[in-house]
Amino acid sequence: MHDARLARVTAYAAAAAMGGFLFGYDSAVINGAIAGIEHRFPSSPGMTGFVVAADLPGAAIGAAIAGATADRLGRLGAMRVAGVLFAITAIASAVPFSIWDLAFWRLMGGVAIGMASVIAPTYIGEIAPAAFRGRLASLQQLAVVLGIVMSQLVNYALAMAGGGSAGHLGPLQTWQWMFLVNLLPAALYLWLSTVMPESPRYLVRVGRDDAARSVFAKTEGGDPAEHVADTRRALGGEVTSKLGDLRGPHLLLPIVWTGIGLCALQQLCGINVIFYYSATLWESVGVEESSSLLLSLFTSVINLIGTFIAISLVDKLGRRPLLMTGSAGMAVALAVTAYAFSHQADGGVLPFGWGLVALVGASFFVLFFALSWGAVVWVLLGEMFPLSIRAAAMSVATATQWLTNWLVTLTFPTLSAWSLPATYLIYAAFAALSFFFVRRRVAETKGRSLEAISEAS
């Protein structure tokens, strides 16, 4: 592929992935803000868990409506809707009047997250050439990870400057600034959506063949007219995808069930427990707040390293080998972490040696997740569904992911209070199950055009 064309497509994919950055920052910033929120709005552990998880049902709603929005307004139009929501909720979450008010704005922020989680992989999958699609689609997860890392950096810097998340910096408490910072990338995301080209496959869907040929000429080699013809054949005459199009012999088409399974298992291994609760988790076993925030930052860096590994290997090794390697590694790492937590002394404090084992186990869990299920699931979601049902299928699968994420996040405080080691063993069991799911249900898509994958589906 011509270097200039590849650079152009990479820039478009990176711009779309800004939604992933917002998704990562907005979902993980709560990790460092919990102590400050509890100080400002004293509440029960159950209410704290409700606020932490409030963005997840919103994300399920956002994912559910994103497909129809992207088909009606275009991929870029849907990005703009999500960008506006990100901007509004960054401000509103920073200045809530009550704990319920904060929970509502977390919910609305979740709608933006859910929309971005559907739009970015859809857009990247539709604009990227087959030979580079895995790496370019992995930019979505890289952006999510960078958003998480940035949230931890911002949390730590603000907490140090303000004397903890409950301290004050100017007219606001520290935790309020943590939310407000997200306004800057939200504004950038909105601007990028005004200068990017629309997805050529969406343009073909709505009959704008001339515009589609122009975009294909910038992003793909070969004859743009031939790409338009191939896309129109793969669409099968469909203009918009509807939930009714997903019906199959067992309620839904088999490929849709596979997408749902991938999204559910990605969350049932418990990965977001690490990103939402790691600071309070380490504090609960005797680590001070400043050190717990540093450990959260360290975990985010491990996540970033794993994502770079995934980007370098996904188009070389393929999707299936990475997923199965990750499943095996996560299962072992989670089992080791569970065993370490079983050595808590009176008061819940971990002895130093077992605390180190728990940290190593959790770090390897994050590493194996990042180099496999973290990045590769988003790659597969952007390419595995037939073009004629892509937007609707993406919405259903991604909504499942967010609902499962919500279930895991909401239940973790209760489960960990019952037995922290048993909770991590449950996550290990789901990680092991994911290995066999991939082996049986997931087809390799490496190096195949979207049109060829559509015909095979």
Helix content, binned percent: over 70%
Q: Say what the CATH topology is.
A: Growth Hormone, Chain: A
Overall 3D shape: globular
List segments where confidence is low: pLDDT < 50 over at least 5 consecutive residues.
Answer: none
Number of strands: 2
Number of helices: 20
Q: What structural class do you assign from the helix and strand content? A: mainly alpha
**CATH architecture group name:** Up-down Bundle
Radius of gyration: 21 Å
* Fraction of residues in β-strands: under 5%
Query: Alpha-carbon distance between the termini?
Result: 27 Å
Task: Outline the structure in words.
It is a single chain. Helix content is 78%, strand content 1%. The chain is built from 20 helices and 2 strands. The model has no long low-confidence stretch (mean pLDDT 83). Strands 1-2 form a two-stranded antiparallel sheet. With 457 residues, the protein is mostly helical. Strand 1 (168-169) and strand 2 form a beta hairpin. Helix 4 (45-53) packs parallel to helix 6. It has helices spanning 3-16, 18-28, 30-40, 45-53, 55-94, 99-127, 133-162, 174-180, 183-192, 200-205, 209-219, 224-235, 254-268, 271-284, 289-313, 319-341, 352-383, 390-418, 420-441, 450-456, and strands at residues 168-169, 172-173. The longest helix is centred in the N-terminal third of the chain and has 40 residues, at 55-94. The protein has a single domain (3-196, 241-456), classed as Growth Hormone, Chain: A, CATH 1.20.1250.20.
